[in-house]
């Protein structure tokens, strides 16, 4: 522990685009984390759905150590074994035939949107450029992806923004059908809106979206940055629906905590990313791909995925019991281990206060806007940790209700 590092140091040397907690975690194991003072926390946040296998999973650690003794980085001038191995795993497990690797979800979505525009131009002409996205969506922080996201607050101050992006209401098939046209090149959608409040898409909405995209030769892009890699009890959320996208993006849990993103698509569509049309210095590097390969092997396991559904049931039951006693939430939305607890009207705007109170009680949680408490724990969180975390969350809920 370096006792010279403090929260004040963040304000001194870091760009102020974040406002992190006063605590500084220094060690994690499984679903528990310890700060500089040695205080223990139950992790219901999972690094925002990143640490799908918890902290320092032994097999991920072993893979990282082994690969670190072999080869860290190669430019894309050369081929590397771990990248091909991971791409083969992903294509065998999904609809996709080819993969592009990036470093993050935003970069994966950037690649998907660029590919959609290029594919439309290559196959249908220069006028097919419109991208449809949805209100309250979130797709990343690059200028292109933040514009595609449907939350104006993330775009303020960065104008002028990329053009020909249209935002429509989520889960509103009639409006989509009215608007979509031959000028639409792609529709990008989260099967569950994460930052927008843990709002699942209705099956009929996604099915209609698929049919309309096919009708108008528009590509359907599923942003599975947060919903993928077992989070909903399927490897990717699209597998819970009778819908197959044209492009799928993945990141967050793909590397189990090691930064990596991926864009998955078919060979026909991928042809538009011809030689030199897109690239990444670090994307697909051996370290990231090796760790992600092990993470994918562990997560894409029927027993683990069934365990996600079992934990979903237990979390939902536990949260309902807490809410019956304390009464803060008007709705609890659960899809696998992506959980949103929406505050009642009288407690609207208090989600961040609840987060801070939970931290004081020794449980790490998230928010999804000012009115929704978000949980995204490890997919293999031990049941005793789940129960202890819920007990601590209950104390935080009581503290909020009693006015601290």
From TrEMBL:
Pathway: Amino-acid biosynthesis; L-arginine biosynthesis; N(2)-acetyl-L-ornithine from L-glutamate: step 4/4. Gene3D superfamilies: Aspartate Aminotransferase, domain 1, Type I PLP-dependent aspartate aminotransferase-like (Major domain). It holds the Pfam family Aminotran_3. It catalyses: N(2)-acetyl-L-ornithine + 2-oxoglutarate = N-acetyl-L-glutamate 5-semialdehyde + L-glutamate. One of its GO terms (biological process) is L-arginine biosynthetic process. GO terms for cellular component: cytoplasm. CDD domains: OAT_like. Keywords: Amino-acid biosynthesis, Aminotransferase, Arginine biosynthesis, Cytoplasm, Pyridoxal phosphate, Transferase. PROSITE patterns: AA_TRANSFER_CLASS_3. Belongs to the class-III pyridoxal-phosphate-dependent aminotransferase family. ArgD subfamily. This is Acetylornithine aminotransferase. The gene is argD.
């Amino acid at each position: 522990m370096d006792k010279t590092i403090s929260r004040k140091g963040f304000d001194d040397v870091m760009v102020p685009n974040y406002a992190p907690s006063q605590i500084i975690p220094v060690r994690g194991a499984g679903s528990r984390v310890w700060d500089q003072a040695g205080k223990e926390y139950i992790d219901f946040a999972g690094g925002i759905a990143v640490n799908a296998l918890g902290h320092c999973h032994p097999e991920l650690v072993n893979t990282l150590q082994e690969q670190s003794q072999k080869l860290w980085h190669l430019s894309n001038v050369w081929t590397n074994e771990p990248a091909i191995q991971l791409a083969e795993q992903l294509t065998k497990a999904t609809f996709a035939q080819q993969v592009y690797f990036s470093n993050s979800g935003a970069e994966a979505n950037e690649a998907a949107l660029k590919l959609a525009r290029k594919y439309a131009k290559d196959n249908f002409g220069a006028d097919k450029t419109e991208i449809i996205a949805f209100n309250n969506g979130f797709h990343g922080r690059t200028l292109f992806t933040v514009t595609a996201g449907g939350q104006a607050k993330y775009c303020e101050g960065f104008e002028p923004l990329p053009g020909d992006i249209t935002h429509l209401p989520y889960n509103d098939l009639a409006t989509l059908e009215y608007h979509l046209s031959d000028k639409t090149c792609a529709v990008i959608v989260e099967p569950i809106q994460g930052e927008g409040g843990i709002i699942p898409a209705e099956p009929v909405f996604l099915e209609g979206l698929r049919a309309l995209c096919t009708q108008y030769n528009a590509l359907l892009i599923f942003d599975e940055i947060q919903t993928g890699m077992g989070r909903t009890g399927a490897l990717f959320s699209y597998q819970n629906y009778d819908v197959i996208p044209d492009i799928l993006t993945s990141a967050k849990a793909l590397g189990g905590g090691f930064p990596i993103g991926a864009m998955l698509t078919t060979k026909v569509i991928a042809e538009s990313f011809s030689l030199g049309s897109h690239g990444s210095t670090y994307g697909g590097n051996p370290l990231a791909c090796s760790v992600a390969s092990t993470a994918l092997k562990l997560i894409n396991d029927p027993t683990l995925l069934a365990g996600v559904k079992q934990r979903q049931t237990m979390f939902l039951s536990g949260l309902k019991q807490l809410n019956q006693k304390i009464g803060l939430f008007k709705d609890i939305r659960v899809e696998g281990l992506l959980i949103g607890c929406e505050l009642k009207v009288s407690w609207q705007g208090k989600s961040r206060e609840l987060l801070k109170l939970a931290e004081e009680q020794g449980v790490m949680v998230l928010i999804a806007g000012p009115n929704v408490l978000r949980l995204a724990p490890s997919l293999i969180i031990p049941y005793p940790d789940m129960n202890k975390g819920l007990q601590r969350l209950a104390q935080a809920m009581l503290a909020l209700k009693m006015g601290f």
